[in-house]
Amino acid sequence: MRILIIDDDPTVLLIARRSLEVRGHVVEARSEPLGTTNAVRHFRPDVVVLDLSMPALDGPHLARLISAAKLDVRLVLYSSVDPRELEAKAAELGADAFVHKSNPEDLVLVVEGLDAK
Fold it and tell me: Could you report how far apart the first and last alpha carbons of the chain are, in Å?
């Protein structure tokens, strides 16, 4: 699968990227949310993994931009906020899935589970 990850934390970004690449996925990682819709158009990911809390352009706003642009991608919210809050935000934004950042392997399982659907 082709996966685009947007997260302002370079350590989280690196760990998530490596966790997915080792499983054979093609990953583009961005630490800057600005320009994401163009990145989606050019990279053509199957899945966008999106951090909720970022400066300049937060995850919910970015999710709405992706949706408004009619970009045909699955959306996974990836955050360290309280899991109940994360679940509610995913439902509100129409995300395909959500994952708490506490375990990078959970991200792999969720992303690969989307491919199975």
Answer: 13
Give the residue among 48, 64, 61, 66 at the shortest CA–CA distance from 110.
Answer: 48
Mean pLDDT (whole number) for 91-103: 92
Q: What is the number of domains present in the chain?
A: 1
- Cβ 54 vs Cβ 33: under 8 Å: yes
Which domain range does residue 15 map to?
2-116
At residue 65, the pLDDT reads 80
What's the pLDDT at 54? Answer: 77
Tens-place pLDDT, residues 44-63: 999 999 998 877 777 777 88
pTM equals 0.91
- Euclidean distance between CA atoms 50 and 67, whole angstroms: 13
Is residue 63 within 8 A of residue 73, CB to CB? The reply is no
Asked whether the beta carbons of 98 and 89 are under 8 A apart, the reply is yes
* CATH at residue 59: 3.40.50.2300
